[in-house]
């Protein structure tokens, strides 16, 4: 069991043991969240800043709750109401937040590499809450937590990620995490959004959705990332839904215990049929719940907290 990192910037730089350490520690914090008094004093006196320069619901609010439950002070930075509007740079903004005694900067930014850049100029802990199409490490950790909780293991499972892989930071972080933990990862979607080059990351790539979902233990659906696409990657949303959406006919062909996952926000009726999003095999909202425990674990560990030791799975 180990954790020595000052920052959480991506999954690529973590070992399998470090990923397991986060998952085990998060299990302890999930139990804390089920108690009447949900607060622990682990980060008392520390200041956490949510520096979100891109929109977010789940990640921003769960980091805010995670900091509160660890007894930290939390500040939410609003780009639209800030001196960003007057041309202040990201570096100057972050240095000013640090000058106000921020101990943690949690950053979401449209530019890949923005968290890595801040980690080089700040003394504060930097946590990546999503940078461009590059990485979303806490999403991958909560996805692994959810799979492990539901299936009891990750190694040997067939996990299919279906949708816009090319522009997805979730896909990249999930691929790193799942392959490090021994899952068999299949990627599927239109050839323009799922290039064969992803095979270099140790995945199977197919453009045949029936093949992709047939033997899957987990099907993780991704929305089309319109905000990052600089050109039209497929003819129409209707055609995407027809060819790659998880509809009832396709769902009927999946394994009876296959988990349905989605990082959110979901586009009902596009990548997932609305009834499937709400069905008993969908763990989409449990992913959100688990995100809180995982983000508590990340804040706790990067602050130097002692990892919780549990038998490895
Ligand atoms: N999954 C995810 O990152 O959602 P938000 O954009 O709402 O944070």
Class from secondary-structure proportions: alpha/beta
How many DSSP helices?
A: 11
What is the first-to-last residue Cα distance? 12 Å
Major β-sheet strand ordering? 7-6-5-8-9
Number of DSSP strand runs? 9
β-strand percent reads 5-15%
Largest sheet: 5 strands, parallel
Could you walk me through the main structural features you see in this protein, from its secondary elements to its overall organization?
- The chain has 313 residues and is of the alpha/beta class.
- It has eleven helices and nine strands.
- The radius of gyration is 19 Å and the shape is globular.
- 45% of the residues are buried.
- Phosphoric acid mono(formamide)ester binds at residues 56-59, 130, 139, 263-265.
- The site of phosphoric acid mono(formamide)ester has 9 residues, from helix 2.
Question: Key features?
Answer:
single chain, 313 residues, alpha/beta, 5-stranded parallel sheet, 4-stranded parallel sheet, 9 strands, globular, binds phosphoric acid mono(formamide)ester
Please describe the topology of this protein.
Layout: H1 16-33, E1 47-52, H2 58-69, E2 73-78, H3 90-99, E3 104-109, H4 114-121, E4 125-131, H5 137-151, E5 158-162, H6 169-180, E6 184-188, E7 204-206, H7 209-214, E8 218-221, H8 237-244, H9 248-252, E9 259-261, H10 274-277, H11 284-302
Describe what is shown at a glance.
The chain contains eleven helices and nine strands.
